[in-house]
Design a protein that fits this description.
mainly alpha, Cyclin A, domain 1, 2 domains, two-stranded antiparallel ribbon, Rab-GAP-TBC_dom, Rab-GAP TBC domain-containing protein, GTPase activator activity, Rab-GAP_TBC_sf
Length: 395
């Protein structure tokens, strides 16, 4: 609701209503945008499942449409949080058709673990493509792989909460109930997804989708990791020689969707959005806590990272051992979702220090921050030897 600038209005009689004025304006804006920047479905091969002809209204005033487009573009770009410093006009280097083909390729394989939302629904895929295509045309910035997963998650959340207004036509409701139905109207699923995506994606683009900014954020993360856990930092930089950029790019750009799964991401995003809104309601930044959450994720698999070599550590980071539905293998004694939630709320019971007496294939470690990296190296060697002995005994 904060993304769409909704608020309740209390009446003198004690009644409560929703102020939907801004929501209606945003929906009208997107309708205009979608009409002006039409997706070139007709340029695809005729046998393509997305192919369709474009209907042109003979009564449509072309000059009026152009003026609307210019006015809308200026209005949106002026206040758009995605404004970048560079003056590159990506529209000159890539055609509408090329962007459409890229979007189709990405959206066709979106969230294979939840095929009912996109893989098995052509209509939903078309909606998502229209959202991303219009965002690309509006902002003038290039589409980057990964954005489809971010907008896809928002789409799923809204679709789960949608209401079909036709089913309520014969029922009488109060004014507030009618406003809630209007808010959840399925006919505006695409509109609301676009507008929320456009609000939330700004800080993410600024920090993680520009090469220079991404490198800066990586350096900042390394400094935070050193301040939080010098042994983990020593392990990555000096022992494994692991460049953070290699694995952090996905953690940053996809906001942990691949690491913790869609369901956990929905719960986590809700907290991140609220925290960002509290810090600055004019520009919601859901990335503020992201580096610290990543450090928490690392701490939960530190036992396994310690006994890994370069290849094993990189594989572990790129295939984070999240518990999946139907399994009962929580990480570090807590489910991942619970751990992240407790950390987000500042619960002292969730620590980022080295777990004490953590069993790792027969080995254990318990190092305080007063110990040196040499002590850590010795403990790591003992744990790796213990693992080799255990592996040999199992054969």
């Amino acid at each position: 609701m904060s993304c769409l600038q909704l608020n309740k209005v209390s009446k003198p009689q004690g009644e409560v209503e929703l102020n939907l004025g801004n929501l209606r304006r945003l929906r009208e804006d997107y309708t205009t945008l979608r009409n002006e920047f039409q997706v070139p479905w007709n340029e695809l091969p005729v046998d393509n499942e997305y192919y369709q002809t474009i209907n042109i209204n003979d009564d449509h005033d072309i000059t009026e449409g152009v003026s609307k487009k210019i006015e809308l573009s200026r209005l949106r770009v002026q206040h758009d949080p995605l404004s970048l410093d560079d003056n590159t006009e990506h529209g000159n280097t890539i055609t509408d058709l090329q962007t459409l083909e890229t979007l189709i390729t990405d959206v066709n394989r979106l969230f294979p673990e939840m095929p009912e939302y996109f893989i098995n629904s052509l209509e939903n895929r078309k909606r998502l493509i229209r959202i991303l295509f219009n965002w690309w045309k509006l902002t003038g910035h290039s589409y980057s792989q990964g954005l489809h997963e971010l907008v896809g998650l928002i789409f799923i959340v809204f679709q789960k909460e949608c209401a079909t207004t036709e089913s309520f036509e014969t029922v009488s409701f109060t004014k507030l109930e009618n406003q809630v139905i209007e808010l959840l109207d399925e006919n505006f699923l695409e509109h609301d997804t676009f507008n929320v995506f456009n609000v939330l994606i700004g800080p993410v683009i600024e920090k993680y989708y520009k090469e220079t900014s991404l490198l800066q954020e990586t350096v900042k993360f390394d400094l935070r990791l050193f301040e939080t856990d010098k042994f983990q930092y020593h392990l990555f930089k000096n022992k494994l020689k692991l460049d953070s950029t290699i694995w952090l790019i996905r953690y940053f750009r996809l906001l942990l969707i691949r690491e913790i799964g869609v369901d956990n991401s929905v719960q986590l995003w809700d907290k991140l959005i609220c925290f960002g809104y509290i810090q600055d309601h004019t520009k919601i930044d859901m990335t503020l806590l992201l580096p610290y959450l990543i450090i928490l994720l690392l701490s939960m698999i530190k036992s396994r990272l310690i006994i890994s070599d370069y290849g094993e550590a990189l594989f572990l980071l790129l295939h984070y051992p999240i518990e999946h539905e139907g399994t009962s293998k929580p990480i570090g004694g807590l489910s991942l979702g619970a751990s992240l939630m407790r950390f987000t709320f500042g619960d002292d019971s969730t620590k980022l220090d080295s777990p004490k007496n953590s069993k790792v294939d027969g080995g254990s470690y318990a190092l305080s921050k007063k110990k040196s990296t040499r002590d850590f190296d010795r403990t790591r060697l003992e744990m790796k030897l213990a693992k080799k002995v255990n592996d040999a005994m199992k054969k």
